[in-house]
Amino acid sequence: MDEWVNTTLGEVVTAGKGKIQTGPFGSQLHASDYVDAGIPCIMPTNMKNNRVDLTDIAFITEEDAKRLSRHLVQEGDIVYSRRGDVTQKALISKDEAGYFCGTGCLLVRPGTAIDSGFLTYHLSTPSNQAWIVNQAVGAHMANLNTGILANVPLRVPNHAKQKKIAAVLSTLDTKIDLNHRINAELEVLAKAIYDYWFVQFDFPDANGRPYKSKGGAMVWNDALKREIPAEWDAGSLDDLGKIVGGSTPSTADAANFGQGMIPWITPKDLSNNKGNKFIARGETGVSEAGMRSASLTLYPAGTVLMSSRAPVGYLAIALNPLTTNQGFKSFVPSKGYGTSFVYYAVERSMPTIIQYASGSTFVEISGGVLKSVHAVLPDKSVTNAFCNLIEPIVKRQQQAEVENVELAQLRDWLLPLLMNGQVRVARSERSFSCRSK
Question: Model pTM?
Fold first, then answer.
């Protein structure tokens, strides 16, 4: 008979000779102490899907790391966000051992009494996350402390069962991570092709040779302040597709919003979607009545979505018909240029777009600004050839992202069932048997 024990995080950490400690305070590590290269410093922004996300990670010197060595992490540690989204955390793998637990974080060293992988998933259950959020203190922003974490309630089986449960869930997460890494490599390839064709102008000529390198005719363009292929033109981002905005139905009428309605995307959805190229739906949807009341338009699949405020510059491609709130200026490919070309052309123009952002309360980009941003307008036969060339890349990325959604849904469905004993791991880690409690 399976035996599960009720305990707390503090009790298992103490039993395993681990520790729960606060990360360094700002007085110990100042903004001026960060450097361009050195020891990676894990901040709350570097926590994603229970793993360390190296995107935009900060660094400290080896001298500072030695001075504050008690904050260096080990394999199996869990680093928690101390404020803001206090459910965010990252399990430290062997690759991140020796990194630094940054300010704004808490360090949990589970010790030997509990499997760190199992503990990470246990802390990810909806019930435990809700408990942590409810216990977090702060009038304006949720804050965690070591006392709150120590009191997190746990219900754990023996060590062998912990490892089996963690193995099942980590198999799903490993596949999700592999898909992300494959897509990242494919994205590097797609961007390289775009730059080769439309920045260096070495697209294949009529004989299949690189156009500019093999002496293709180039002419000076005053608007772009550079030479472009003789048959090409210059315009603005408005020439790439129809620029459209969104709106928000009356929030007073709750019937305007809900699950299972027309997908209605907000900048927050793109923020949560960061790292993915495509999006099918957001956290909520809008009713047909809400569409009418806010004069919303249903945009077709292939629309390039760009968040134009709070924040500016997140991009995604609509996988299916959807609409957006007012935080978007999106591009409906309707002027002879394919979705993939429009996507990369807008992305390549993003530094200029962001430069023009303005606003007193929060910065945003207007449609008028987008219409003033210069863009090269290639011969459409070349952009069509580009879209055809990278179509297999795009399809593979779509497939991986859809698969990841399905894997994440399976993981999130299994997680509470495994943790409360409703589903148990049989002899094979890939085989399950179910029983009622």
Answer: 0.85
